[in-house]
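Narrative of accomplishments. A recurring question from our advisory board has been how the design workflow behaves on a single, concrete structure rather than in aggregate. To address it, we present the structure tokens for one chain from the evaluation set, followed by the sequence designed for it. No filtering or post-editing was applied between the two.
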């Protein structure tokens, strides 16, 4: 668990109970898709981008950006996302990065921290 997540764990309980989480590692970034529930057991989605950085003193910290997506907006959000993704693919084809053991850009096992999402 990241230290800032631990520090904010009490406030997270107030803002929503965790129902389901799906992390997606993509190069130097990790995206978290988290389903949460309100007190009325209504679900919503948080999408968090997390990027590890090194501070001047050598400590690691994480830049995080989060959006909240409510179920009444799912269809419009998905349609808008699909539209812009399709536009980008047509105008500037995406070339997926293929990481190999010898690749300098390949994420190292030490770049990631084992996280038990059941405990978050």
């Amino acid at each position: 668990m990241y230290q800032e997540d631990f520090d904010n764990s009490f406030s997270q309980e107030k803002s929503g109970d965790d129902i389901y989480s799906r992390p997606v590692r993509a190069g130097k970034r990790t995206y978290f898709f988290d389903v949460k529930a309100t007190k009325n057991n209504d679900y919503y989605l948080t999408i968090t981008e997390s990027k590890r950085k090194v501070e001047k003193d050598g400590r690691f910290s994480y830049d995080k950006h989060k959006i909240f997506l409510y179920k009444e907006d799912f269809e419009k959000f998905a349609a808008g996302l699909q539209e812009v993704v399709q536009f980008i693919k047509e105008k500037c084809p995406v070339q997926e990065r293929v990481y190999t053991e010898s690749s300098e850009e390949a994420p190292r096992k030490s770049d990631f921290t084992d996280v038990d999402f059941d405990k978050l």
